[in-house]
Amino acid sequence: MAYKISEDCTACGSCIDECPVEAISPGDIYVIDPNICSDCGTCADVCPVGAISQE
Description:
Blueprint: E1 3-5, H1 14-18, E2 24-25, E3 31-32, H2 42-46, E4 52-54
Antiparallel strand pairs: 1-4, 2-3
């Protein structure tokens, strides 16, 4: 299962630099492409507001 980013995202950029497969796209709220996400959880580990969880 891929991870997803909730509306709580503050677009701080912490997760985008940590993603080993470059599945995260920037925006007002960052988005994870479920077709690319390798389900490693690194993004969720570094999110300072806890906006990333498994789908």
